[in-house]
Amino acid sequence: MELGGNSPERAYTNAEIEGVKAKVEFKFGNVLEIPFDNDVFDIVTCSSVLNNLPREKNRIKALKQIFRVLKPGGKCMLLEPLRNLRMFCAFTPFAVFQLGKKEHWENYAETAGFSKVRFHDEKGIGVFILEK
Ligand SMILES: C[S@@+](CC[C@H](N)C(=O)[O-])C[C@H]1O[C@@H](n2cnc3c(N)ncnc32)[C@H](O)[C@@H]1O
What we know:
2 domains, alpha+beta, Rossmann fold, 5 helices
């Protein structure tokens, strides 16, 4: 909701434009308490959300929630801007300090229970494929 003008209606309009409205459902929820049962999703994507959470324990808590709602063998694609030189040019120094390094996100994912963590650097954005 921090994105200006965002709303469920807007998301449904976009789905309609893409011709997928009948196949999607949008729900509000807190990533620290994801409003779904255990083991229900094949894939979770999470783009530049977890760096908004203050403190490591909340980032790990969110990853535990993602782990919980994934089916066994399910995958999460996590995108996070990393604390690196490129992001120092894109953000303010204070904001960059809040970002995690590659090793931080790998540690959080492993602590949350993910068995396999793959990493790719996409122009300073960390792309992590986490497997339950
Ligand atoms: C930088 S925006 C990224 C938005 C979008 N995922 C993207 O990639 O363009 C960060 C998003 O994280 C959301 N967010 C922050 N804390 C959250 C929380 N505890 N639970 C769910 N979403 C949260 C904000 O509402 C905001 O939409």
